[in-house]
């Protein structure tokens, strides 16, 4: 199947795990605008390509400064951000996001290459809604995106409709 082949090729390139049998899942990320921030351009591009196959509209940034510029100039529904980046790391980025009244309720997922624990606690305290440890499976990333996107939307008093 072509869809599965594309996923596997992209995923193998950067070590993202793709579980078979996902074709039955509904495309609940269709129309959701995501910003993926990772200083590793191959990782950011791979996540973007795979999430686009799920129907998401994905932009990428490779550092905190680029991410802030994209967030200021565009409507983004969900932030997926690496923690460990040179210059402005993910913790600094989320602090600036949460300090901005227009972005304060933006759902955000932290990605870390370290084991869970201290990073997870620090990420939550800094303002991330959820932390995932890399390598992360595509199914796990999609489930996490759905979880924080719809949870934040419900608790912010708004509804998220896309089309």
Structural overview:
This protein is an alpha/beta fold and about 160 residues long. It has a single domain, classed as Response regulator (Rossmann fold), CATH 3.40.50. The protein has six helices and five strands; from the N terminus they run αβαβαβαβαβα. It has a five-stranded parallel beta sheet, with helices on both faces. Helix 4 links the parallel strand 3 (about 80) and strand 4 (about 110). Helix 1 runs antiparallel to helix 2 (about 40-55) and helix 3 packs parallel to helix 4. The protein is globular, with a radius of gyration of 15 Å. Residues about 1-25 and about 155-163 have low confidence and may be disordered.
Overview in brief:
This protein has one domain: Response regulator (Rossmann fold). It is built from six helices and five strands. Strands 2-1-3-4-5 form a five-stranded parallel beta sheet, with helices on both faces.
């Amino acid at each position: 199947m072509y869809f599965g082949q594309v996923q596997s090729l992209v995923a193998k390139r950067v070590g993202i795990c793709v579980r078979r049998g996902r074709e039955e899942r509904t495309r609940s990320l269709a129309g959701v605008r995501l910003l993926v921030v990772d200083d590793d351009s191959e990782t950011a591009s791979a996540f973007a390509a795979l999430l686009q196959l799920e129907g998401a509209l994905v932009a990428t940034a490779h550092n905190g400064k680029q991410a802030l510029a994209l967030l200021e100039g565009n409507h983004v529904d969900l932030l997926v951000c690496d923690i460990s980046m040179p210059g402005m790391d993910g913790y600094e980025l989320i602090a600036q996001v949460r300090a901005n009244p227009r972005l304060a309720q933006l759902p955000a997922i932290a990605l870390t290459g370290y084991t869970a624990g201290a990073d997870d606690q620090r990420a939550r305290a800094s303002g991330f809604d959820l932390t995932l440890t890399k390598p992360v499976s595509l199914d796990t990333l999609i489930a996490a995106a759905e979880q924080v996107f719809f949870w934040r939307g419900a608790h912010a008093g708004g509804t998220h409709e896309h089309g």
